[in-house]
Amino acid sequence: MPLTPKLTDLSDLDGIRRELKTLDPGALLGSLDMQRVVISDDAHLKVKASVAEALAAAGKAGSAHIVILKDKTPILRNGENLLELVENQLKDHFAVRVEILDDGHDKLHADDTVLDMAAAAVKGADAIVTVGSGTMTDIGKVASQRNGGVVHVAVQTAASVDGFTDNVSVVLKNGVKRTVPSRWPDIVLADVVTIGTAPREMNTSGFGEAISLFTAPADWYLSSLIGLDNTFHPASMAMLKATAAEPPAWSAGVAKGEAHATRELTRLLALRGIVSGISNTTACLSGVEHVISHMLDLHHSANHMDIGLHGEQVGVASLVAAKLWRQAIESDLIRPERLKKPDLAVLESRVRGAFGHLGDAIAGECWRDCQAKHKKLAENWTRLQSVLTDWKRHAAEFDKMVTPPETLRPSLQASGAPSDFVGLTTTVAPGLARWATANCFLMRSRFNLVDLLDMLGMWTDERIDWALDGVLGETA
Ligand SMILES: [Zn+2]
User: Fold this and answer.
1) pLDDT band at 1 (very low <50, low <70, confident <90, very high)
2) Ligand 1 centre from 89 Cα, in Å?
3) Contact, 342 vs 374, CB < 8 A?
């Protein structure tokens, strides 16, 4: 499939839509329901025009009530208060109310309390403007959805995640992060100056998140080959490839907030968000590396500890995923004669053994998810067998989807993001990193390479140690 620059030109979302239409004649993809994404040095000055544009598109001309949602932490742009810059643009033209969301935490939690608070705060508004990073945008998307899809303009202040430009929100359910359907923002304004001066670890973490682009699609494709995921689409894959064929050379500027690197990182994350939005799944960018990160979150949350930075964890775990995938592609590790049907009673005892110390409720939930996966696997058993028989041919496809860890690591290190578990901002000791990696396939209903390795009898202690060699980090 020829790659086309039009697929990644964020200044022309109509062009992307047209391009996708030709690549998706069966109209299987979800629609890209955003009007505009602006990534520039003066995007913050486009709030008034953007709100007017989005209101007009929603058929709401004339006077309008605008609610600005923000958390309590001030955000500065070149020494000026960004909230005031936004409010001042709007108040001459609209009735504006500022709502500061505060749940008592240092950083706002996107849990039911806050989502209810936000939805109530914007009731009756004609448009919502959120000012903040990923969490604030996610809250705004839910608030918009709960109020009949009221216009939402998001002012993006960090390049921490790819969730600014998609139609889902990451929320906290009983302390655990979950992705729930919400709504595309109508317009996203990413001001490069503000983003470049966001706390350093937010943007470096965004780079860690970004590199799952070089591992996760293989897990997504594998799952689709064996019949466990029907969302894989060549157009999504083409868009990801057109976004970045290899780890970008600009990563060294991320930690320093250099304008070029900040702009490129913002753009890369925005395109990732769009791909997962139109694919109707996060699976396109969430494979082995993400489930290792989810394992760490689960451990931290069950033990009432601080949850680590998502992107940092994903970045380190991507090195593990890439190493395993490259071996699966390049060696004769994957052989059909090695495949054995799992004994479900044994599997259940492994799940309970892995998660029992976190409580029966968590172990039970993991087992339910794992059981659902194995039920589907049993139904697709012959398909799995034939994929393994034909592994060499499939490996040629996987080869295009997975970048070697030797290439990923320097890029991650240059970005300023941690490249080992001990080095994470919320440090992860070797024992915990090993637990998270060894048991990652027992947690969720999604199938990935580690599930396959385990069913081949190849997920051994030796292989786990080998996969983690070099990413555990030095303990003091
Ligand atoms: Zn992620």
Assistant:
1) very low
2) 33
3) yes
